[in-house]
């Protein structure tokens, strides 16, 4: 899976941040706490071409290197011995003693990158998930805007806290309508339980509720949906946190930048999860849709986005602990005046 272009913490140096264009790092690194520019960094100017220096001309025409400026000559083929008419001690020559053909500075060989590096198809140190033959390990976990992704346990606990608060609000605001709806169904369930206790299987003559029960259910669902929206949308728009998220120290942030969600993105995020509450009366269809949305982060990699996160282009991250420095007490400081 390819990583979307953007500014990310460099896995090779976590103190810096670099721009990833989808295929490789682009531009120079910047400090991790610096303000991230909009878009990729400006292109770097190409390096100036280096003109190789001309070889020094030889001043000795009888030297073993031949004519001035010529490369070293090889003597007779390997294995040849002294030839008639030549000095008995003469043998193959390849230039000054100890020299040999060179393609660069002594000890260097062909390089395709920094020493020790091999071909890369992603940021340095990244590899595909475990299970691909020939690739070691899983890639590092993404850190949107330098923050760790929130775990499933924290997100589930935060949602339970929020649902507990919403349940209490519904008891106060929606309690009378819920009590009336239960009263409409009470005769039916009493008779059904009585027949079950006696072993009767017939459903003839069961006291069914009147049409008022449908109106009561619609009112209950409308009030519950409105309470949920009023509780979650404003707090998510301003700070990306509900009460449950504050307790679990997580928050939702946009993928584009580390900034508040805003009312539009917060409303788009909530409608995907909260609006199906109105469909609970349709054979539980709304509850099924919400269950699928709630479980979707378990199957999304690598950003663990739920369906409502994908629609609003958000991601849930952990809130780092902030250590507040103790206030200074001027009384404990020695006076600068001379007594």
From TrEMBL:
Q: Where would you say this protein principally sits, based on its record? A: membrane
Q: What Gene Ontology cellular-component terms does the record carry?
A: plasma membrane
* Membrane topology of the entry: Multi-pass membrane protein
In this chain, composition skew of type Polar residues spans 325-339
Q: What is this protein called?
A: RDD family protein
The biased composition feature labelled Pro residues covers: 38-52, 69-81, 94-139
List, alphabetically, the Pfam families matched.
Answer: RDD
**Residue ranges of every copy of the RDD domain listed in the record:** 150-312
Region Disordered: what ranges?
A: 20-146, 320-339
Q: Where in the cell is it found?
A: Cell membrane
Q: Which PANTHER family match?
A: MEMBRANE PROTEIN, PROLINE-RICH ANTIGEN HOMOLOG-RELATED
> Keywords in UniProt for this one?
Cell membrane, Membrane, Transmembrane, Transmembrane helix
Species annotation:
Micromonospora violae
Which residue intervals are annotated with compositional bias (Low complexity) in the record?
53-68, 83-93
Transmembrane parts of this sequence: 156-179, 213-231, 273-292
């Amino acid at each position: 899976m390819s990583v979307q272009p953007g500014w990310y913490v460099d896995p090779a140096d976590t103190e810096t941040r670099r721009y990833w264009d989808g295929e490789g790092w682009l531009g120079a690194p910047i400090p991790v706490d610096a303000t991230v520019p909009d878009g990729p960094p400006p292109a770097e100017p190409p390096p100036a071409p280096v003109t190789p220096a001309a070889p020094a001309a030889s001043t000795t025409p009888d030297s073993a290197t031949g004519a001035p400026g010529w490369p070293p000559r090889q003597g007779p083929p390997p294995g040849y011995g002294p030839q008639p008419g030549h000095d008995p001690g003469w043998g193959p020559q390849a230039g000054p003693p100890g020299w040999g053909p060179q393609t660069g500075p002594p000890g260097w060989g062909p390089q395709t990158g920094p020493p020790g590096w091999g071909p890369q198809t992603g940021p340095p140190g990244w590899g595909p998930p475990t299970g691909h033959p020939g690739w070691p390990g899983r890639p590092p976990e993404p850190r949107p805007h330098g923050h760790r992704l929130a775990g499933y346990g924290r997100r589930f606990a935060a949602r339970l806290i929020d649902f507990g608060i919403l349940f209490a609000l519904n008891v106060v605001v929606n309690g009378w309508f819920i009590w009336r709806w239960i009263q409409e169904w009470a005769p039916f369930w009493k008779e059904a339980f009585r027949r079950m206790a006696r072993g009767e299987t017939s459903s003839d003559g069961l006291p069914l509720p009147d049409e008022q029960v449908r109106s009561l259910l619609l009112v209950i669902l409308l009030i519950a949906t409105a309470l949920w929206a009023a509780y979650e949308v404003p707090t998510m728009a301003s700070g990306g946190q509900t009460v449950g998220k504050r307790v679990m120290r997580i928050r939702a942030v946009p993928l584009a930048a580390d900034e508040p969600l805003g009312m539009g993105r917060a409303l788009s995020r909530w409608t995907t999860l909260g609006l199906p509450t109105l469909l609970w009366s349709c054979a539980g269809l709304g509850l099924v849709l919400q269950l699928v949305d709630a479980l979707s982060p378990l199957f999304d990699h690598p950003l663990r986005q739920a369906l409502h996160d994908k629609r609003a282009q958000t991601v849930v991250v952990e809130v780092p602990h902030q250590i507040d420095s103790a206030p200074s007490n001027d009384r404990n400081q020695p006076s600068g005046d001379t007594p």
